[in-house]
């Protein structure tokens, strides 16, 4: 269902947005239900980060190259799956200091496409990692310097086997699952939000349908990271639009928009004790690493009147 931005149904509650810390290019937020902390990555300083809302403290560890996602591994404390270039790696980090290390390379994808890198990743309802790739042309890294349809979506099973789920992806981004309706949602930032039929037993996807294109609703920006609430609605970051939007997963209908004080909104994750706080990562790609003020922030959005589905840990032998 298409419509303009002015034709959005507004939520009766007034959400409150608060900046809790600064960042340069936050991405991949993951709320750890057990620890009650938020993990995320920062692309510009090659770091993995942990934010504890109870103490308002942040810890981080840096690597020589950027990490595209960080997901805790189930049953293996202080161990995470991360994406580095085309490698899915296991990282060890206690989250309390700046010392982290890559334990091993679990798998490599897109071996025939050396310009490609991994981007967003999440664990599916059975703990299988799903992640995607994109390819940059030579020169500067930017949204306008990406090869068309050069990426793919991959699934990493618990036994370490990698399966390609779909290809001809331009900019692999947000992911979400609705197990009740048996859907898998995926964002190709340069194309559309896609909905697939999802087989929870096998992890296979089929029947791709494009359900939402940002430009068709009057937005100038691009869909980026994504989360899902208990009603099956999608909450999507709009890069270069200062917005998070709520979309009905079944129909693609635009339901609500939430204004964020930073233009480059990158991703979202539900967190908090009741999973009713929306954490929003943002970026300021004009900043340089040595600037003291990043110009972007991690935001908490409260008062949305919804609860999210919990993020799951990855399972890997």
UniProtKB/TrEMBL annotation:
It is an enzyme of class 3 (hydrolase). Binds 1 divalent metal cation per subunit. Substrate binds at residue 119. The active site is at 224 (proton donor/acceptor). Its EC number is 3.1.1.17. Belongs to the SMP-30/CGR1 family. This is Regucalcin. The gene is LOC106116767.
């Amino acid at each position: 269902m298409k419509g303009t931005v002015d034709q959005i149904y507004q939520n009766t509650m007034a959400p409150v947005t608060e900046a809790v810390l600064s960042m340069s290019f936050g991405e991949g937020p993951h709320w750890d239900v057990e620890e009650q902390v938020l993990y995320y990555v920062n692309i510009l300083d090659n770091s993995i980060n942990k934010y504890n809302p109870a103490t308002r403290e942040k810890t981080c560890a840096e690597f020589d190259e950027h990490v595209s996602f960080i997901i805790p591994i189930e049953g293996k404390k202080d161990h995470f799956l991360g994406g580095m270039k085309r490698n899915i790696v296991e990282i060890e980090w206690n989250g309390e200091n700046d010392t982290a290390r890559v334990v091993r390379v679990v798998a490599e994808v897109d071996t025939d496409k050396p310009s490609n890198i991994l981007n967003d990743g999440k664990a599916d309802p059975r703990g299988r990692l799903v992640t995607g790739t994109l390819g940059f042309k030579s020169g500067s890294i930017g949204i306008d310097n990406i090869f068309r349809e050069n990426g793919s979506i991959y699934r990493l099973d618990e036994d370490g086997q990698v399966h390609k789920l779909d290809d001809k992806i331009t900019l692999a981004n947000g992911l979400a699952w609705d197990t009740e309706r048996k859907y898998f949602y995926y964002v190709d930032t340069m194309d559309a939000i896609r909905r697939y039929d999802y087989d929870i037993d096998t992890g296979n996807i089929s029947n791709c349908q494009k359900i939402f294109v940002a430009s068709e609703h009057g937005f100038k920006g691009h869909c980026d990271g994504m989360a899902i609430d208990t009603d099956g609605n999608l909450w999507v970051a709009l890069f270069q639009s200062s917005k998070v939007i709520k979309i009905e997963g079944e129909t693609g209908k635009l339901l609500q928009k939430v204004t964020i004080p930073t233009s480059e909104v990158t991703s979202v994750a539900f967190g908090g004790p009741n999973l009713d706080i929306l954490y929003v990562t943002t970026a300021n790609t004009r900043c340089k690493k040595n600037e003291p003020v990043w110009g972007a922030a991690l935001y908490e959005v409260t008062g949305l009147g919804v609860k999210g589905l919990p993020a799951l840990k990855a399972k890997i032998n």
